[in-house]
Structures are given as structure tokens and as C-alpha cells.
């Protein structure tokens, strides 16, 4: 071929390339801007078409099945560690001497806690998303029984005589008492809201149960979360001990002498306008100390410091000599080591007024925290070796167990559980979600207000404009992928925008996420969040008779008098399946005097049973209140013709709604998105 | 044959290219580890902590570079064309240096930037007032001190920020204070020495604020009568080092460290057992500091290493019998601080202030509150006039909308009109800033109680009253 011809061909290709490149780039820019709702996201196809892809092949390629160690326990001789691998539904048996995994035992869905009986031969594993407990013979490493529990079994304890198993039900907010001889649940006791942790006192007389959510009160009322105290001998609730201004009490422990109980907690500032982060204005993290004597005091002490916060305290364990307590601060990857004698000194020397003020003092931690030990990503469960010389830390997002010498307070080892080595984009997003490093001075992580990727049940005054106005109910992050726009005012058309520049200016008040981190966070929120099943109201996909009647009411177009309901006032119009939202803005007559005159985004209704309180400002404590107290004008659906029984049916149906992914077989391949219950 | 020749040519081109890249990269890293410092010939003039003369700007000074790794190498003067040059600050990538200088003796002090690779200098500010103590901010900006006139305060130095090309100059402090020796903490805030000038002069203290001037608060306050002598330096292990003196007539003091996490209660004097004075300090690496030290008033300040862990003076790095060596800093890359977002809105001319309870004081005085009269109102005092008296709510809270960038102080008043507390420190709010405090004269480590203040259930009280009128006119 002649040289000139080649040049002409190259010239034509070049010109064609230019013609395609510039308009193509412009079109790509326009497309990316439209999808992300921001104008500065890099032109990266992988952000949406790979990392957040719903295609099963793509999803399989880009994601991994991590282990995510959560809670654990040590054998009586200290040679074995039994680790809950939450994301693969297994109990891992780890050799502590050789630091390797010996065995993996399949348990139920999303296991939460593990305990051993006194002989150390039987392990009990609570399966939070299958509503049962696996009983495991540790000699044969086999599940020998499965005990039915209440909804969302989490914390476990054995009665002092080992005849009964106490199971804390996190979704049901109750406690199952299971007779181990008959393997039947003999009692279900009401606990505080959203309980998880539990511990039996050393004398075996009382069982403490923590709660994560505060009791439901109207916005402006003081926040109180209950510690439930149960009498072990009578199996009855002895007391609901209100812990003021606190929530997210994850776990509880007793000193060996039994003089103190200690629980982790967060002290949110949701009633104060969120105008700054400085000076602990948003979230504080600490512990409560409950004296175990007549008229015993309840004292709260912060773990935070004036310029450093130790967000999301999770577990607490106390050394056998009663001298030290260890708290995992899962949002900052630290273990705080506490001198219990120093705490006793503070209790002895301080007046009630002083003690009360300590609960809001950032300097007090310097009097009792003796060391901060850094860990791998997201430290959760803690356990001590029987001699108290080693502390094991479950690094949930590292797939490792850290080993700390409790005398030198140095990390002396790390047990690799063998999870995937590759850190996927969604996994990185999960790390970011759980880490407070992207908030000014590490004061809170995304997880803090969205525990378990859900919501914390609180209403905040986010101070978009003037203080005291526009209070907003925290929204769940579960199943929000296809439900844009976001925020109650619908101002954010994508998660990219939601977590972008404005987010950092108003909420995190530090440098915004860079684009890689933002991609990772979006990938996790859109595809990586696991959805608990709705086993309480829709365990097998079949509706009850009441729910079927409720569904008819939901879908109806005429009222009880046979009069046609205007189309825009029917439930089904604004909340159509499968998302149960039309993705539009609406006025349902809920605007209050303190709201700016805006329309509200129509929320999706999946798993709405677990999202109380309701409405944009959380004014409705129950679904029923939406239409009884706050829906008298029939503007939030035509409901005032309904009888009480019909309203009950409607609410029964609403509570049964669950993720569309749950009934969609294709969703099985979405890694980390959906797990079907047993 | 042709192919062979073209291969040879290709190889030669590649070799030359790699060589160029290699030598360029060598040149790039050649400044790493060098030390730059301010030198002053002869005796140090008496320091003026109020005006900063001979302290924050030093007449007849020069900036020099020293390669401490090469024994016997002479220093290199970097600012030969300047009458005075001081306050070197190295960029986060280690490639540039900001400094303050005057070309001729009576020139205005301006801010300049030097490219440390080719030593070219460019002028950043062209101010009609003295500018000095520059420090790099993330996002290609800098913060510096500049002389400014504030009502009733004839001499004051405010902080300004600007782009590194001198554009977008913004004043960020508005109190009748002098602000000097700024540095930027890893959290993105500016750490600066601030001294109240009006109505009476007070000791200097470290204040922190966001780069837009918002959320200014106390970081560290020395012992009564002491002076913070040098800028603060934060290290990767969470400590902040600086020089403090308890003798204002001396041109030096002791090395002090505080923990970033709890600066008000973690002061450690690292040099209390060492005779002599320290003029400045900066970090070299973990556990090791670079200090300007002299053993007696008769000596010149020289450059030493200091072992922070063992609190001992190490080897002398550089000494010159004719020159004092001040403000030394190692040229190296360092982690860029966070670039903080801003919610300033310059089209708004007010800011909002919320106080949770004016009767809340501090933890120590919790027990004594019975003996103190309860305040029921506040007086907001401007520089030369009262801006208004406001009743607080039953819970002790108040919610104000005040003119932005205007300093004011608050004093609390009892039912019978007596002053209970105050007036407190000067405060200003930036346009659209929303700021909260727990109480008046509160413990700086106290966080707010989680309760909704009664005052925010209403509209904010607008001060001064004239502003209220303007707002109403706008609304109508």
C-alpha cells in the first residue's frame, strides 16, 4: 500500500476519532452528571456499571465473601477461640497457640453471639436472622440442636444453674427464657428497646440486658434507654433502670467481685441544633457504671477527649483481677484500657452533682483511661483468656483477631482467619461507613446514626437554616438503592450527592470524601448492605388473613361507603410496589409550624415495621398514629372511613412488607446484599 | 541496515530520556533533609510581644539553608536581595517555602514564595500594611498576619487568608487582638497566638479556628504572666511543641509540649532542667526536635538537636559566633492537613449564637453555685457601645442574631441589675456562622447537655436593635 494511502487512512481515522471523542465526551459528561447528580464526578464507567452493578456475573467478579468476625469466646483452657463469622454464617474454631483456624461449623443466618456452658463442651450460637440458637457439641464440632427463639436473637447467657438459656431478641425487644431440658421457650420477658448485650452477675442473682434504642418519646423530651434487670431465680423483670441521655448500650460486664456493672453507651445530642462538631456538640461516647448495692448510683463517664472522640464503643470485658476493663471503640479502631480502681476513686470522691457533670466532661477520661491501643478495622467483640493475660479482639472488617498482652498493653499477635485478601470496593465502602475518620475529630461514623445500616430511632435538628426548625427523623439506609431522591426534602438525587460536598459542610464538617472513597461508599450502600428478613410479620412470604385484608385496603379505590377515592389519595398511588414509593414529592398535610414550606419525599415502605418513629419529624410513634392522631384530615391517604379492625389489618399488611429482593431468586447472587433465611 | 540504525537511534533517545528523568528526580529530592532558618547578625533586639517587632518580624534578618548531612558545607543564603527575611514555612510537598520579607529597610513587609528547586522567588502580597508569619493552608492557600485598624484599637494584627497567587484575600479574625505565628493543625484548623489588646492587654494564648475564621476557641493558655514565644508545631504522634517564657524581658524560654487531644491540661516543660534559653522549636522526626538554643545571655542562639523522650539537648547542628539562629525548619514532605469545608455565606451579614445556659460555669464550681446570684439577662457589649440587653429564657438559654465580623463581649446580669459574670472574652461571628456554647465562662472541656434550649423555639433576638429595623424593612 502506498505511503500516501496509509496516511489518508490514518488521517480519516483521526478525524473520525475527534468527531466521536468530543461529542462523545460531552455526552458521557452529561450522562455521568445525570446519574450522579453532581457535576464533578470523574468520567469513570466502573463507578456505576461495575461497583454498583446488579448483574450477577459482574457482582460475582467484583465482590468477595468476607468472614467478618463479630463476637467470640475462649475455651476454659484457653487453647481454643470460638469466633462468630457473621457474613458466612459459621462458627470458626481457632487454635490460639498456633494461631490457625481448625474448623468451621455452619450455623444459622447472621450469627450474633456465642457462649459456652461451664464444662466448656457445649456452645450456644444465636442466629439473629433465623430466629434460633444453634447448640453445638464442641467435641464432635456438630450442631446437635436448634432452639427456637423470639425475633432477632442476639446476646446469650445461661442461668446460674445452667438449666435455662436466656436469649436477648433484638428485633422483638424481649428476652426468651428457654428451658434446656425441654428445649422449649417457657417465658418471654419484655426488655428495653432493641436489646443486644446481656450478662449474669457473679453471684448469679441478676441478669442485665442492655438496649440500643432509647424509649420512644416526643421530640424535645429527655432521652432514656432502659437497662433491664431480670431476677434469675424467678425469671421475672426486677426493674427497668433508665439510663438518661444515652443509647446504643451494646454490651455489659460485671466486675468479678460484683460491685460494679459497666456498659458501653453513646450520648447523642439530637435535641441540640447541630450547628457545630467542636466541643462535643454532636455525639459523645462512654460507659455507664452501675453500683451493685442498695441505692447504688448510676454514673456515666465519657471515653472521649476534648479533641479526640472514641466513637461507637461496642464491647466491654473486665480482667479476672477486676483491675482493668477493655472497651472496643469500633468507629476509631482503638481499645481503651480503663483502670477500674481509678473509677472507684472517682465514685468515692465526687458528689452527685460532680458525677452528673462528669457525664458531659471530655477531660474526665484522663483520670481513668490508662492506654489506647490501636487495632485493625472495626474492632467489635472482645474476650479474655481464662488467666486474663491475653485479650482477643475481633477485627470485623479485617477478618483477623488481634491478640493483646494485658500486662504490657501491647499487641502481640494477629490471627488471620483466612478471609479474602483482596479488599473490594464495597468492602472499602463498608470500612468507610463504619469508621469515624471522615468526621471532624472522629466524633461519629455513618454507622453511629445508622447502626446496622438502619437508623437509630432518633429525630435530629440538623439546622439547615435557623436553629430549632426542620427537625428530621433519621432514615434507614436499607434497600434505598432505587429510591432516589434522598433526604426528606428530596434534594439529593443520588447517593453521590447525598454524601458529597454539602454532606461534609453540614454533617461531617471535615474534608469531603475523595471520589474513590465516595465510589466505595456508594457501592456499599447501594449493593453491599445486608437486609435482615422480616421474620416477625412475614416469616415465609405468605400473608395472614389479616394482612390479606389489609392488602385489599391498601389497594382499594373506593371507600367503605362505595365512594371513589381520588386517585392521588390512595395508598397504592404514592406507595406502589415493588419499591412502595412513587419516588415523587408529596404534601400529606404533615408540615408543622417549625418546618420550612416544602414537599416531602415519599419514602419506601420495606421493613417499615422496624423504622419507628414515623413521618419526617418522627412525630408518630406507631404506624397507627399516622392516621389516628396525625391523619384526621384524610390527606395522607383516605382512611377515616376505616373501622379500627380495618386499620389494624392495614397496619398488619404494612408491617409485612419486605425487600423485593427477598422474593427474587436472582438476588441470591448479589453478594452481601441479601441472604434468605433458613 | 535501516532497521539497525533506527534501533540505535531509538536506544539513544531512550537512554537520554531516562537519564534526564533520573537526574531531574535526583534534583527534586536534593533539598530533602536540608534545614532552612532565620539568621540575625549581632545581638537580638528587644522583643515586642504587642507589635511583634523583633519577634514575629525581625529587621535585618535573612533566611539561609544548611545541608546538615554534608559535613563542613557552608550555609547558603537564600534571601540575599532582601534587607530582612524571616518566618520560613515549607509547603506540604517540600518543594516551596513561604517567608516574610522587606526588600529595603523601610519597605512594607510582604509575603513571598521561593521554589526550593530553582530558588526563584515570587512576591505574593502587595499590601500597604505589613504582612508576615505566613503558613501554608491546604487547597493552595495561605494564612498570614497583617496589620489592620480596628475601631478603638490603633494597632492590631488580624489573620488573613489568600490564594498563593495573592488573590482572594480575606480577613478571618475581627477581635481587637493581635494574631501571630499561625500554623495549621492536622485537623485543618489554624493554630495561632492571640493576645487581647482592648480594653486591656492580656497574655497571649493559643487559639484555634477554621480557615474561614469560624469556631474560634481556646486551645492552650499558659501560666499567668507567661508568654507563648514561638509558633506551635504539631507532630504525628499527637503532640504540639512550642516555646514559652515566664520572663517577658528574655528573648527565649522553655520547650513546652501539650497533647493535641487535651491541650489545656497536658503541659509538660521539656527543658526545665536545662540552663539557658530556647528561641524556637520544630520537629525533625519522632522523638527528635530541632531547637534554637543558647546557654547564656552572652551566647548566640545556635542550632541543636533535642531528644524529646529523654529531655536532653543533643549535638549542635550549626553554630555561628556572629549570628543568632532562629526559626529553623527541616525541608521535607509532610502530610497535608484536612481541607475543611466552609458554610460561610458572604451575602448574609449576620451570624447566629446559641448559649445553652448562662448560669452554667464549670465542673469545679458545680458545688458553689448556691452562693452565686443567678443571672437572668445578658448585656452584649461592642467595642465602644452596648449592643443591647436581652432577657434569657427560664432555662438560661439565649439565641442571638448579630452583625457578622463585629466583635462583642457578653456579661451576665442578675434580676437586680448587678453583673454576675463578665464581660467575657471577645467573640465575633462570620457571615452565616452558627455557633454554640454551653455557658458563660464554662469549662472548656464541657459538652452541652442534650436538651433543646427554650430559646431556639423562638426566632433569634436580633442585635443591635438597628439591625432588627433593617431586617424588618427588608421583610416588608
> Share of helix among residues of chain B?
under 10%
Unreliable stretches of chain A (pLDDT < 50, length at least 5) are: 665-678
What is the tally of helical segments of chain B? 2
Q: Determine the strand fraction of chain B and express it as a percent band.
A: 35-45%
Mean pLDDT of chain B: 89
Number of helices of chain A: 14
Instruction: Quote the beta fraction of chain A.
Output: 25-35%
Structural shape of chain B: globular
Overall structural class of chain A, as computed from helix and strand content, comes to: alpha+beta
The assigned structural class of chain B equals mainly beta
Identify the most extensive interface between protein chains: A-B, 49 and 47 residues
Tell me the quaternary state.
heterodimer
**Terminal Cα span of chain A:** 69 Å
The largest sheet of chain A has its strands arranged as: 1-2-3-4
Whole-number radius of gyration of chain A?
26 Å
